[in-house]
Design brief:
The complex is a heterodimer. By secondary structure, chain A is mainly beta. Chain A contains three helices and 20 strands. Chain B is 22% helix and 31% strand. In chain B, helix 1 packs across helix 2. Classes of the chains: A mainly beta, B alpha+beta.
Amino acid sequence: MITVIDPGGLTTVQDLGRPGYAHLGVPPSGAVDRDALALGNRLVGTSEAAAGLEITLVGPRLRFDVPATIALTGAPLPAAVDGRRIAPGAVTHVAAGSVLESGTATSGLRSYLCVRGGLEVASVMGSRSSDVLTGLGPPPLSAGDRLPVGSIDAAWPGVDCVPFRNLSAEPMLHVLPGPHPEAFARSALETLTDSAYTVSPASNRIGMKLTGPPLDRISGEVATEGLITGAVQVPPSGQPIVFLNDHPTTGGYPVVAVVTTRSLRPAAQLRPGVTVRFTTAPTTF
Amino acid sequence: MTAHRLSAMGDRALLVHCAGNDDARTVAAAIAAGAASLDPQDGVIEDVVTAATSVLVVYSAPGPVTARCQTITSTIAGAGDHQLGAAGEITLRTRYDGPDLSAVARYAGLTPAEVVELHAGAEYQVAFLGFVPGFAYLTGAPELLRAPRRADPRTRVPAGSVAVANDMTAVYPRVSPGGWQLIGTTDVPLFDPAHEPPSLLDVGTRVRFVPA
Protein backbone atom coordinates (compact mmCIF):
# COMPACT_ATOMS: atom_id res chain seq x y z
CA MET A 1 0.00 0.00 0.00
CA ILE A 2 0.92 3.63 -0.49
CA THR A 3 -0.73 5.98 1.98
CA VAL A 4 -1.46 9.53 0.90
CA ILE A 5 -0.38 11.92 3.63
CA ASP A 6 -1.01 15.01 1.50
CA PRO A 7 -2.20 14.95 -2.11
CA GLY A 8 -0.47 18.23 -3.07
CA GLY A 9 -2.36 19.86 -5.93
CA LEU A 10 -4.61 17.88 -8.26
CA THR A 11 -3.14 14.38 -8.18
CA THR A 12 -5.04 11.62 -9.97
CA VAL A 13 -4.54 7.99 -10.85
CA GLN A 14 -4.01 7.64 -14.60
CA ASP A 15 -3.23 4.84 -17.00
CA LEU A 16 -3.67 4.88 -20.78
CA GLY A 17 -7.38 5.59 -20.37
CA ARG A 18 -10.60 4.03 -21.62
CA PRO A 19 -10.63 4.88 -25.34
CA GLY A 20 -13.38 3.42 -27.52
CA TYR A 21 -16.46 4.59 -25.61
CA ALA A 22 -16.86 8.11 -26.98
CA HIS A 23 -19.88 6.86 -28.93
CA LEU A 24 -21.56 6.42 -25.53
CA GLY A 25 -20.49 9.84 -24.24
CA VAL A 26 -17.42 8.62 -22.31
CA PRO A 27 -14.14 10.54 -22.87
CA PRO A 28 -10.92 8.58 -23.47
CA SER A 29 -9.25 10.02 -20.34
CA GLY A 30 -5.80 8.65 -19.39
CA ALA A 31 -2.48 10.39 -18.78
CA VAL A 32 -2.35 13.71 -20.60
CA ASP A 33 1.41 13.25 -21.17
CA ARG A 34 1.07 9.68 -22.30
CA ASP A 35 4.73 9.35 -23.27
CA ALA A 36 5.88 10.38 -19.78
CA LEU A 37 3.65 7.80 -18.09
CA ALA A 38 4.75 5.07 -20.48
CA LEU A 39 8.42 5.96 -19.94
CA GLY A 40 8.02 5.94 -16.17
CA ASN A 41 6.39 2.52 -16.30
CA ARG A 42 9.15 1.15 -18.54
CA LEU A 43 11.77 2.48 -16.12
CA VAL A 44 10.31 0.45 -13.30
CA GLY A 45 9.95 -2.62 -15.49
CA THR A 46 6.15 -2.48 -15.59
CA SER A 47 3.63 -2.54 -18.44
CA GLU A 48 3.22 0.85 -20.12
CA ALA A 49 -0.50 0.53 -19.48
CA ALA A 50 -0.10 0.29 -15.71
CA ALA A 51 -1.61 3.01 -13.53
CA GLY A 52 0.57 5.69 -11.96
CA LEU A 53 -0.02 9.07 -10.41
CA GLU A 54 -0.47 12.19 -12.55
CA ILE A 55 0.77 15.12 -10.47
CA THR A 56 -0.37 18.60 -11.48
CA LEU A 57 2.23 21.22 -10.58
CA VAL A 58 2.32 20.61 -6.81
CA GLY A 59 3.41 17.18 -5.65
CA PRO A 60 2.15 14.89 -2.89
CA ARG A 61 3.55 13.51 0.32
CA LEU A 62 3.27 9.72 0.35
CA ARG A 63 4.23 6.93 2.73
CA PHE A 64 5.25 3.60 1.27
CA ASP A 65 3.94 0.89 3.56
CA VAL A 66 5.75 -1.73 1.51
CA PRO A 67 9.13 -1.68 -0.27
CA ALA A 68 8.66 -0.21 -3.73
CA THR A 69 10.51 0.79 -6.87
CA ILE A 70 9.52 4.14 -8.31
CA ALA A 71 10.40 6.66 -10.98
CA LEU A 72 9.38 10.26 -11.61
CA THR A 73 8.94 11.48 -15.18
CA GLY A 74 7.32 14.39 -17.01
CA ALA A 75 7.67 17.88 -15.55
CA PRO A 76 10.75 17.94 -13.27
CA LEU A 77 9.47 17.67 -9.71
CA PRO A 78 11.77 18.22 -6.75
CA ALA A 79 11.36 15.18 -4.52
CA ALA A 80 13.07 13.44 -1.64
CA VAL A 81 12.63 10.09 0.08
CA ASP A 82 13.34 10.24 3.79
CA GLY A 83 15.21 13.48 3.16
CA ARG A 84 17.37 12.15 0.31
CA ARG A 85 16.83 13.92 -3.03
CA ILE A 86 15.76 11.73 -5.94
CA ALA A 87 16.39 12.67 -9.54
CA PRO A 88 13.74 12.83 -12.26
CA GLY A 89 14.00 9.94 -14.66
CA ALA A 90 15.91 7.74 -12.21
CA VAL A 91 14.85 4.38 -10.81
CA THR A 92 14.63 4.61 -7.03
CA HIS A 93 14.11 1.81 -4.52
CA VAL A 94 12.30 2.80 -1.36
CA ALA A 95 12.08 0.80 1.87
CA ALA A 96 8.84 0.04 3.72
CA GLY A 97 7.96 3.00 5.91
CA SER A 98 9.72 5.56 3.68
CA VAL A 99 8.09 8.92 3.13
CA LEU A 100 8.32 10.73 -0.20
CA GLU A 101 8.00 14.50 -0.09
CA SER A 102 7.69 16.54 -3.26
CA GLY A 103 7.44 20.21 -4.15
CA THR A 104 6.43 22.31 -7.13
CA ALA A 105 7.48 21.38 -10.66
CA THR A 106 10.28 23.67 -11.77
CA SER A 107 8.92 23.78 -15.31
CA GLY A 108 6.03 22.22 -17.17
CA LEU A 109 2.81 21.09 -15.54
CA ARG A 110 2.33 17.33 -15.23
CA SER A 111 4.68 14.88 -13.53
CA TYR A 112 4.19 11.13 -13.28
CA LEU A 113 5.06 8.89 -10.37
CA CYS A 114 5.23 5.32 -11.58
CA VAL A 115 5.54 2.31 -9.29
CA ARG A 116 6.77 -1.15 -10.20
CA GLY A 117 3.66 -3.32 -10.29
CA GLY A 118 1.37 -0.38 -10.96
CA LEU A 119 -1.34 1.06 -8.74
CA GLU A 120 -4.14 -1.43 -8.40
CA VAL A 121 -7.14 0.71 -7.55
CA ALA A 122 -10.51 -0.44 -8.90
CA SER A 123 -10.94 -0.39 -12.68
CA VAL A 124 -13.95 1.27 -14.29
CA MET A 125 -14.74 0.37 -17.91
CA GLY A 126 -11.32 -1.21 -18.29
CA SER A 127 -9.29 1.67 -16.89
CA ARG A 128 -8.08 3.09 -13.58
CA SER A 129 -8.01 6.65 -14.92
CA SER A 130 -9.76 9.52 -13.17
CA ASP A 131 -12.00 11.41 -15.57
CA VAL A 132 -12.69 14.89 -14.22
CA LEU A 133 -15.48 15.57 -16.72
CA THR A 134 -17.69 12.57 -16.00
CA GLY A 135 -16.37 11.55 -12.59
CA LEU A 136 -15.72 8.01 -13.83
CA GLY A 137 -12.81 6.23 -12.17
CA PRO A 138 -11.29 6.99 -8.78
CA PRO A 139 -11.70 10.47 -7.31
CA PRO A 140 -8.62 12.72 -7.11
CA LEU A 141 -6.27 11.83 -4.28
CA SER A 142 -7.02 13.10 -0.80
CA ALA A 143 -5.30 12.71 2.54
CA GLY A 144 -5.74 9.25 4.02
CA ASP A 145 -6.25 7.43 0.71
CA ARG A 146 -4.52 4.07 0.46
CA LEU A 147 -3.32 2.91 -2.95
CA PRO A 148 -2.67 -0.81 -3.48
CA VAL A 149 0.51 -1.65 -5.40
CA GLY A 150 0.60 -4.66 -7.70
CA SER A 151 3.23 -7.33 -7.47
CA ILE A 152 5.23 -8.23 -10.51
CA ASP A 153 7.73 -10.82 -11.57
CA ALA A 154 8.87 -9.30 -14.82
CA ALA A 155 12.43 -8.65 -15.86
CA TRP A 156 14.14 -5.45 -14.86
CA PRO A 157 15.00 -2.94 -17.60
CA GLY A 158 18.70 -2.43 -18.29
CA VAL A 159 18.81 1.28 -17.39
CA ASP A 160 19.01 3.13 -14.09
CA CYS A 161 17.97 6.49 -15.42
CA VAL A 162 17.01 8.33 -18.57
CA PRO A 163 18.29 11.71 -19.71
CA PHE A 164 15.98 14.55 -19.05
CA ARG A 165 15.03 16.87 -21.87
CA ASN A 166 14.23 20.47 -21.01
CA LEU A 167 10.84 21.72 -22.04
CA SER A 168 10.91 24.44 -24.66
CA ALA A 169 10.65 28.02 -23.43
CA GLU A 170 8.08 28.94 -26.07
CA PRO A 171 6.45 25.73 -27.21
CA MET A 172 5.13 25.33 -30.72
CA LEU A 173 2.22 22.97 -31.32
CA HIS A 174 1.75 21.44 -34.75
CA VAL A 175 -1.82 21.45 -36.00
CA LEU A 176 -3.76 20.19 -38.97
CA PRO A 177 -6.62 22.34 -40.31
CA GLY A 178 -10.08 21.50 -38.95
CA PRO A 179 -12.90 19.86 -40.93
CA HIS A 180 -15.06 22.98 -41.42
CA PRO A 181 -13.02 25.74 -43.06
CA GLU A 182 -16.30 27.25 -44.27
CA ALA A 183 -17.26 28.03 -40.67
CA PHE A 184 -14.34 30.43 -40.33
CA ALA A 185 -13.16 33.62 -41.94
CA ARG A 186 -10.20 32.89 -44.20
CA SER A 187 -7.92 34.68 -41.77
CA ALA A 188 -8.78 32.47 -38.79
CA LEU A 189 -6.22 29.71 -39.31
CA GLU A 190 -3.62 32.34 -40.18
CA THR A 191 -4.39 34.26 -37.01
CA LEU A 192 -4.00 31.07 -35.01
CA THR A 193 -0.61 30.29 -36.52
CA ASP A 194 0.69 33.87 -36.58
CA SER A 195 -0.13 34.78 -33.01
CA ALA A 196 1.03 33.98 -29.52
CA TYR A 197 -1.57 32.68 -27.07
CA THR A 198 -1.44 32.49 -23.30
CA VAL A 199 -2.68 29.50 -21.34
CA SER A 200 -5.44 30.60 -18.98
CA PRO A 201 -5.63 29.39 -15.36
CA ALA A 202 -9.13 28.15 -16.22
CA SER A 203 -7.54 25.11 -17.85
CA ASN A 204 -7.62 21.47 -16.77
CA ARG A 205 -7.71 17.88 -18.06
CA ILE A 206 -10.85 18.71 -20.02
CA GLY A 207 -9.16 21.44 -22.02
CA MET A 208 -6.85 24.42 -22.11
CA LYS A 209 -8.44 27.80 -22.54
CA LEU A 210 -6.22 30.17 -24.46
CA THR A 211 -6.30 33.95 -24.48
CA GLY A 212 -5.09 35.94 -27.43
CA PRO A 213 -6.24 37.33 -30.79
CA PRO A 214 -9.81 36.12 -31.35
CA LEU A 215 -10.57 33.81 -34.27
CA ASP A 216 -13.29 35.00 -36.64
CA ARG A 217 -16.12 32.59 -37.22
CA ILE A 218 -18.70 32.90 -39.95
CA SER A 219 -21.21 30.49 -38.50
CA GLY A 220 -21.65 30.31 -34.77
CA GLU A 221 -22.46 26.65 -34.65
CA VAL A 222 -22.05 23.54 -36.70
CA ALA A 223 -24.17 20.42 -36.36
CA THR A 224 -22.99 18.56 -33.26
CA GLU A 225 -20.13 16.25 -34.15
CA GLY A 226 -17.55 14.04 -32.50
CA LEU A 227 -14.56 15.69 -30.82
CA ILE A 228 -11.08 14.33 -30.28
CA THR A 229 -8.16 15.06 -27.94
CA GLY A 230 -6.26 17.99 -29.44
CA ALA A 231 -9.27 19.58 -31.18
CA VAL A 232 -9.05 23.39 -31.09
CA GLN A 233 -12.65 24.58 -30.72
CA VAL A 234 -13.77 28.19 -31.05
CA PRO A 235 -16.76 29.33 -28.98
CA PRO A 236 -18.59 32.64 -29.48
CA SER A 237 -15.84 34.56 -27.66
CA GLY A 238 -13.38 33.69 -30.42
CA GLN A 239 -10.90 32.47 -27.78
CA PRO A 240 -9.75 28.97 -28.70
CA ILE A 241 -9.98 25.94 -26.41
CA VAL A 242 -7.60 23.01 -26.93
CA PHE A 243 -9.39 19.88 -25.77
CA LEU A 244 -7.42 17.35 -23.74
CA ASN A 245 -8.11 13.81 -22.53
CA ASP A 246 -11.32 14.37 -20.54
CA HIS A 247 -12.92 16.30 -23.42
CA PRO A 248 -16.67 16.28 -24.07
CA THR A 249 -17.29 13.63 -26.72
CA THR A 250 -19.40 15.85 -28.97
CA GLY A 251 -19.54 19.59 -29.57
CA GLY A 252 -21.46 22.14 -31.59
CA TYR A 253 -18.91 24.92 -31.87
CA PRO A 254 -16.60 24.79 -34.90
CA VAL A 255 -13.12 23.27 -34.70
CA VAL A 256 -10.50 25.42 -36.45
CA ALA A 257 -7.60 22.98 -36.16
CA VAL A 258 -6.47 19.80 -34.41
CA VAL A 259 -3.16 19.38 -32.57
CA THR A 260 -1.12 16.45 -33.93
CA THR A 261 -0.57 13.38 -31.79
CA ARG A 262 3.10 14.21 -31.41
CA SER A 263 2.41 17.75 -30.25
CA LEU A 264 0.04 16.51 -27.53
CA ARG A 265 3.16 15.80 -25.48
CA PRO A 266 4.32 19.44 -25.17
CA ALA A 267 0.63 20.44 -24.94
CA ALA A 268 0.35 18.33 -21.77
CA GLN A 269 3.09 20.39 -20.13
CA LEU A 270 1.71 23.90 -20.71
CA ARG A 271 1.25 25.53 -17.36
CA PRO A 272 -1.14 28.48 -16.98
CA GLY A 273 0.60 31.72 -17.87
CA VAL A 274 2.94 30.33 -20.51
CA THR A 275 2.89 31.44 -24.12
CA VAL A 276 2.19 28.92 -26.86
CA ARG A 277 2.30 29.19 -30.64
CA PHE A 278 0.85 27.04 -33.39
CA THR A 279 2.12 26.00 -36.77
CA THR A 280 0.49 23.93 -39.51
CA ALA A 281 2.04 20.49 -39.73
CA PRO A 282 3.26 19.29 -43.10
CA THR A 283 0.67 16.85 -44.43
CA THR A 284 2.01 13.63 -45.88
CA PHE A 285 -0.11 11.44 -48.11
CA MET B 1 -24.61 5.35 -52.53
CA THR B 2 -22.91 8.60 -53.50
CA ALA B 3 -19.39 9.01 -52.14
CA HIS B 4 -19.18 10.77 -48.79
CA ARG B 5 -16.80 13.67 -48.21
CA LEU B 6 -14.06 12.84 -45.69
CA SER B 7 -12.09 15.36 -43.64
CA ALA B 8 -9.05 14.82 -41.49
CA MET B 9 -9.76 15.45 -37.81
CA GLY B 10 -6.15 15.65 -36.73
CA ASP B 11 -3.73 12.89 -37.69
CA ARG B 12 -5.59 9.92 -36.27
CA ALA B 13 -9.25 10.50 -37.07
CA LEU B 14 -11.41 10.98 -40.13
CA LEU B 15 -14.75 12.79 -40.19
CA VAL B 16 -17.29 11.36 -42.62
CA HIS B 17 -19.74 14.08 -43.69
CA CYS B 18 -23.24 12.63 -43.96
CA ALA B 19 -26.52 13.80 -45.42
CA GLY B 20 -28.37 13.50 -42.13
CA ASN B 21 -28.61 11.31 -39.08
CA ASP B 22 -30.15 8.33 -40.91
CA ASP B 23 -27.18 8.43 -43.28
CA ALA B 24 -24.75 8.82 -40.36
CA ARG B 25 -26.15 5.76 -38.59
CA THR B 26 -25.98 3.70 -41.77
CA VAL B 27 -22.37 4.77 -42.38
CA ALA B 28 -21.36 4.05 -38.77
CA ALA B 29 -22.94 0.60 -38.92
CA ALA B 30 -21.15 -0.15 -42.21
CA ILE B 31 -17.77 0.83 -40.78
CA ALA B 32 -18.34 -1.07 -37.56
CA ALA B 33 -19.49 -4.13 -39.48
CA GLY B 34 -16.49 -3.93 -41.81
CA ALA B 35 -13.98 -3.25 -39.05
CA ALA B 36 -12.88 -6.83 -38.73
CA SER B 37 -11.90 -7.06 -42.39
CA LEU B 38 -10.27 -3.65 -42.74
CA ASP B 39 -6.75 -3.54 -44.15
CA PRO B 40 -4.43 -4.24 -41.21
CA GLN B 41 -1.95 -1.74 -42.66
CA ASP B 42 -4.48 1.00 -41.91
CA GLY B 43 -4.13 0.39 -38.21
CA VAL B 44 -6.76 -0.25 -35.57
CA ILE B 45 -10.03 1.67 -35.39
CA GLU B 46 -10.46 2.70 -31.77
CA ASP B 47 -13.95 4.23 -31.93
CA VAL B 48 -16.73 5.15 -34.33
CA VAL B 49 -18.57 8.21 -33.01
CA THR B 50 -21.92 8.92 -34.64
CA ALA B 51 -23.23 12.45 -34.35
CA ALA B 52 -26.02 14.58 -35.84
CA THR B 53 -24.83 14.51 -39.46
CA SER B 54 -21.39 12.92 -39.33
CA VAL B 55 -19.37 9.94 -38.22
CA LEU B 56 -15.94 10.34 -36.63
CA VAL B 57 -13.67 7.35 -37.20
CA VAL B 58 -10.92 7.36 -34.59
CA TYR B 59 -7.78 5.24 -35.04
CA SER B 60 -5.53 4.25 -32.17
CA ALA B 61 -2.48 5.89 -33.79
CA PRO B 62 -1.59 8.13 -36.76
CA GLY B 63 -1.32 6.23 -40.03
CA PRO B 64 -1.51 6.43 -43.84
CA VAL B 65 -4.33 8.91 -44.48
CA THR B 66 -4.96 8.21 -48.16
CA ALA B 67 -5.13 4.48 -47.56
CA ARG B 68 -7.49 4.96 -44.63
CA CYS B 69 -9.77 7.21 -46.70
CA GLN B 70 -9.85 4.64 -49.48
CA THR B 71 -10.68 1.85 -47.05
CA ILE B 72 -13.47 3.86 -45.42
CA THR B 73 -14.94 4.85 -48.79
CA SER B 74 -14.95 1.33 -50.13
CA THR B 75 -16.34 -0.06 -46.86
CA ILE B 76 -19.28 2.35 -47.04
CA ALA B 77 -19.83 1.61 -50.74
CA GLY B 78 -19.51 -2.12 -50.20
CA ALA B 79 -22.26 -2.04 -47.59
CA GLY B 80 -24.56 -0.81 -50.37
CA ASP B 81 -28.02 0.34 -49.50
CA HIS B 82 -28.70 -2.47 -47.10
CA GLN B 83 -31.01 -1.48 -44.33
CA LEU B 84 -29.60 -1.26 -40.86
CA GLY B 85 -30.15 -4.43 -38.89
CA ALA B 86 -33.10 -4.32 -36.51
CA ALA B 87 -31.96 -2.22 -33.58
CA GLY B 88 -32.90 -3.16 -30.06
CA GLU B 89 -36.06 -1.71 -28.57
CA ILE B 90 -36.32 -0.36 -25.07
CA THR B 91 -39.46 0.62 -23.18
CA LEU B 92 -39.13 3.19 -20.41
CA ARG B 93 -41.87 3.33 -17.79
CA THR B 94 -42.25 7.02 -17.09
CA ARG B 95 -44.06 9.09 -14.47
CA TYR B 96 -45.18 12.18 -16.34
CA ASP B 97 -44.61 14.49 -13.39
CA GLY B 98 -42.02 16.92 -14.74
CA PRO B 99 -41.91 20.56 -13.57
CA ASP B 100 -42.11 21.81 -17.19
CA LEU B 101 -45.05 19.66 -18.28
CA SER B 102 -47.49 22.58 -17.98
CA ALA B 103 -45.17 24.90 -19.87
CA VAL B 104 -44.82 22.40 -22.71
CA ALA B 105 -48.61 21.96 -22.75
CA ARG B 106 -49.13 25.72 -22.99
CA TYR B 107 -46.57 25.94 -25.79
CA ALA B 108 -48.38 23.16 -27.68
CA GLY B 109 -51.86 24.51 -26.98
CA LEU B 110 -52.79 21.23 -25.33
CA THR B 111 -53.66 19.96 -21.88
CA PRO B 112 -50.93 18.17 -19.90
CA ALA B 113 -52.83 14.90 -20.35
CA GLU B 114 -52.79 15.40 -24.12
CA VAL B 115 -49.04 16.07 -24.02
CA VAL B 116 -48.53 12.79 -22.16
CA GLU B 117 -50.64 10.91 -24.69
CA LEU B 118 -48.73 12.45 -27.60
CA HIS B 119 -45.28 11.88 -26.10
CA ALA B 120 -45.99 8.30 -25.01
CA GLY B 121 -47.69 7.55 -28.30
CA ALA B 122 -44.59 8.20 -30.39
CA GLU B 123 -41.78 5.87 -31.35
CA TYR B 124 -38.30 7.29 -30.92
CA GLN B 125 -34.84 6.30 -32.10
CA VAL B 126 -31.38 7.14 -30.74
CA ALA B 127 -29.68 9.52 -33.16
CA PHE B 128 -26.42 9.72 -31.17
CA LEU B 129 -25.03 9.99 -27.64
CA GLY B 130 -23.02 12.73 -25.98
CA PHE B 131 -23.07 15.41 -23.25
CA VAL B 132 -22.73 12.90 -20.36
CA PRO B 133 -22.24 9.09 -20.49
CA GLY B 134 -25.43 7.38 -21.64
CA PHE B 135 -27.23 10.60 -22.67
CA ALA B 136 -29.03 9.64 -25.88
CA TYR B 137 -30.51 12.21 -28.25
CA LEU B 138 -33.80 10.69 -29.45
CA THR B 139 -35.49 11.70 -32.70
CA GLY B 140 -39.16 11.17 -33.42
CA ALA B 141 -40.73 13.81 -31.19
CA PRO B 142 -44.23 14.79 -32.41
CA GLU B 143 -44.33 18.21 -34.12
CA LEU B 144 -46.59 19.76 -31.52
CA LEU B 145 -44.20 18.98 -28.66
CA ARG B 146 -41.17 20.74 -30.12
CA ALA B 147 -40.80 23.34 -27.41
CA PRO B 148 -37.52 25.26 -27.32
CA ARG B 149 -34.97 24.83 -24.54
CA ARG B 150 -35.63 26.74 -21.33
CA ALA B 151 -34.42 30.32 -21.38
CA ASP B 152 -32.72 29.68 -18.04
CA PRO B 153 -31.15 26.23 -17.79
CA ARG B 154 -31.19 24.42 -14.48
CA THR B 155 -27.91 23.85 -12.65
CA ARG B 156 -29.23 20.58 -11.34
CA VAL B 157 -31.53 18.19 -13.21
CA PRO B 158 -32.53 15.04 -11.29
CA ALA B 159 -31.33 11.68 -12.57
CA GLY B 160 -33.91 9.90 -14.71
CA SER B 161 -35.53 13.12 -15.91
CA VAL B 162 -37.36 12.71 -19.21
CA ALA B 163 -37.04 15.87 -21.27
CA VAL B 164 -37.88 17.52 -24.59
CA ALA B 165 -36.16 20.31 -26.52
CA ASN B 166 -36.79 21.30 -30.13
CA ASP B 167 -37.18 18.14 -32.18
CA MET B 168 -35.61 15.78 -29.68
CA THR B 169 -36.38 13.98 -26.47
CA ALA B 170 -33.87 12.57 -23.99
CA VAL B 171 -33.42 11.09 -20.53
CA TYR B 172 -30.80 12.54 -18.18
CA PRO B 173 -28.84 9.50 -16.92
CA ARG B 174 -27.69 11.26 -13.77
CA VAL B 175 -27.71 14.60 -12.00
CA SER B 176 -26.25 17.26 -14.28
CA PRO B 177 -26.96 20.80 -15.45
CA GLY B 178 -29.62 20.89 -18.16
CA GLY B 179 -31.63 23.26 -20.29
CA TRP B 180 -34.27 20.92 -21.69
CA GLN B 181 -37.96 20.96 -20.67
CA LEU B 182 -38.54 18.30 -18.00
CA ILE B 183 -41.81 16.42 -18.50
CA GLY B 184 -41.32 13.20 -16.53
CA THR B 185 -39.13 10.76 -14.65
CA THR B 186 -38.04 7.19 -15.26
CA ASP B 187 -36.41 4.86 -12.72
CA VAL B 188 -34.80 2.69 -15.38
CA PRO B 189 -31.01 3.08 -15.09
CA LEU B 190 -29.56 4.55 -18.29
CA PHE B 191 -25.88 4.14 -17.53
CA ASP B 192 -23.95 1.83 -15.23
CA PRO B 193 -20.18 1.65 -15.77
CA ALA B 194 -20.04 -1.71 -13.99
CA HIS B 195 -22.55 -3.23 -16.40
CA GLU B 196 -21.76 -4.73 -19.81
CA PRO B 197 -22.85 -2.90 -21.93
CA PRO B 198 -22.59 0.17 -19.73
CA SER B 199 -25.23 2.18 -21.60
CA LEU B 200 -28.82 1.01 -21.91
CA LEU B 201 -29.22 2.97 -25.15
CA ASP B 202 -26.92 2.84 -28.15
CA VAL B 203 -27.01 4.49 -31.57
CA GLY B 204 -30.14 3.30 -33.39
CA THR B 205 -31.95 1.84 -30.35
CA ARG B 206 -35.71 2.31 -30.63
CA VAL B 207 -37.36 3.73 -27.54
CA ARG B 208 -40.94 3.98 -26.31
CA PHE B 209 -42.16 5.75 -23.22
CA VAL B 210 -45.00 4.16 -21.28
CA PRO B 211 -46.88 6.09 -18.62
CA ALA B 212 -46.28 4.40 -15.29
